[in-house]
Design brief:
The two termini are 17 Å apart. Strands 1, 2, 3, 4, 5, 15, 16 and 17 form an eight-stranded mixed β-sheet that branches. The relative contact order is 0.16. The chain has two domains: 105 residues, Urease, subunit C, domain 1 (Roll), CATH 2.30.40.10; 275 residues, TIM Barrel (Alpha-Beta Barrel), CATH 3.20.20.140. With 393 residues, the chain is of the alpha/beta class. The protein binds N-(iminomethyl)-L-glutamic acid and fe (iii) ion (FE). N-(iminomethyl)-L-glutamic acid (NIG) binds next to α2.
């Protein structure tokens, strides 16, 4: 537990708590509010002027700003080397995205030094923090050898406890035409070596990546080794990703761009979150998923960046909120919930994404009169303050 001086945030114009028992609606909105942070957690939430007396409290007047839980980015790939700007440019000139591009990042990542990989990951995590992300999930997946996946996870672990072994991302070149042999190596060697360093096990279930049986085999080996599943599924076309995620009790299935009525019904009846990644559709110029079908069916929806060099080279949760609203037809309230509490659900965390006493003091302030401005003012840096564990960054 991080300790430090307590801080009273006062003069909050709009406070998003995400706790309907504290404020109005699903976002638990309070106006003219104050928030007391201390010993790494939220100590008290309520109306301005009603705070309990405490000694040695630093008081900060937020002058009518909006305050909300820090963003929870539940899907990123920040450990890589190289650049795929040319691939992006050719997509913008009409080329389709294929999973094959991942291999060029694998080659660059394998050739990079630890220091180079660490510099990129640190730069991206720092960028994310500045735009309000206080919890970030980080995947491996650009090594695809035991040693390279291990070092990616070690580097990721310096930034977050939410580390993911993306063991089955793409068949690496040395296993060309022998995907089953690669899967065997993943199960027999990579998973046992990497499991102590990863909380999550992930697979890319897609034509051109791994099929349903291969994904099931990797996920069940991961579970046996103590990791919890999450799935990249139904991104490039319809497929079995959603079904496998629900079947294996995955915390989240991510992308879900192409879903059937059965997929949606299965998700609605499960504890698996659907994580939407609008940066990927933006950067691949693909059709955005229909978030209304998911939300109106009662599926829990998260929004994340998918930060990676191929399909979504952004760390900006505010951009993803704006895209989720404008392009995926989420309401601003839904998008803000999904980028905070939704991400927490996708990481099975009940101590973040909500501002209630006892939760982590991961808090951001916006230079704006409401959270709606995150979508209403796209591309504008509105995040004025970030606290992680109660400490101002
Ligand atoms: O989440 N879908 C698979 N993985 C990444 C893309 C990786 C890449 O193209 O490098 C994604 O979009
Ligand atoms: Fe991804």
């Amino acid at each position: 537990m991080t300790s430090g001086p307590w801080t009273l945030l006062d003069g909050i114009g709009v406070l998003v708590t995400n706790d309907p028992d504290i404020g109005v609606g699903r976002l638990g909105l309070l106006r003219d509010a104050a928030l007391l942070l201390g010993d790494g957690v939220v100590q008290w939430v309520g109306s301005s002027g009603r705070e309990p007396h405490a000694d040695n409290v630093f008081r900060l007047d937020l002058d009518g700003r909006t305050v909300l839980p820090g963003f929870v980015d539940s899907h990123t790939h920040p450990v890589f080397a190289g650049d795929r700007a040319e691939e992006f440019a050719s997509r913008m000139a009409g080329q389709p995205y294929t999973a094959g591009g991942i291999r060029s990042t694998i080659a660059a990542t394998r050739a990079a030094t630890d220091a180079e990989l660490n510099a990129t990951a640190t730069r991206l995590v720092t960028e994310a923090r500045r735009s309000g992300t206080t919890t970030i999930e980080c995947k491996s997946g650009y090594g695809q050898t035991v040693a390279d996946e291990l070092r990616s996870l070690r580097l990721a672990a310096a930034h977050t406890p939410e580390t993911t072994l993306l063991a089955a991302h793409v068949t690496p070149p040395e296993f060309d035409g022998r995907t089953d042999d690669y899967v065997r190596m993943v199960i027999e060697e990579m998973i046992p070596a990497c499991a102590p360093h990863a909380k999550w096990i992930d697979v890319f279930c897609e034509r051109g990546a791994f099929d349903a049986d291969q994904c099931r085999a990797v996920l069940s080996a991961g579970v046996a080794a103590g990791m919890v599943p999450r799935v990249h599924g139904n991104q490039l076309g319809p497929g079995e990703g959603v079904r496998i995620a629900v079947e294996t009790g995955a915390a989240s299935v991510d992308h879900v761009t192409h879903t059937s009525a059965d997929d949606i019904a299965a998700l609605a009846d499960s504890t698996t979150v659907a994580t939407l990644l609008p940066g990927a559709e933006f950067s691949t110029r693909e059709t955005y998923p229909n978030s209304r079908r998911l939300l109106d069916s009662g599926v829990t929806v998260a929004v994340a960046t998918d930060c990676n060099p191929g399909t979504s080279y952004t760390t900006s949760m505010p951009l993803c909120i704006a895209l989720a609203v404008r392009e995926m037809h989420m309401s601003p309230d839904e998008a803000v919930w999904s980028a905070t509490a939704g991400g927490a659900h996708a990481l099975r965390r009940n101590d973040i994404g909500v501002l209630r006493p006892g939760c982590r003091a991961d808090v951001i302030a916006l230079d704006a009169p409401s959270h709606v401005h995150l979508a209403y003012r796209p591309g504008v840096h509105l995040v004025s303050h970030v606290w992680k564990d109660g400490i101002r960054l």
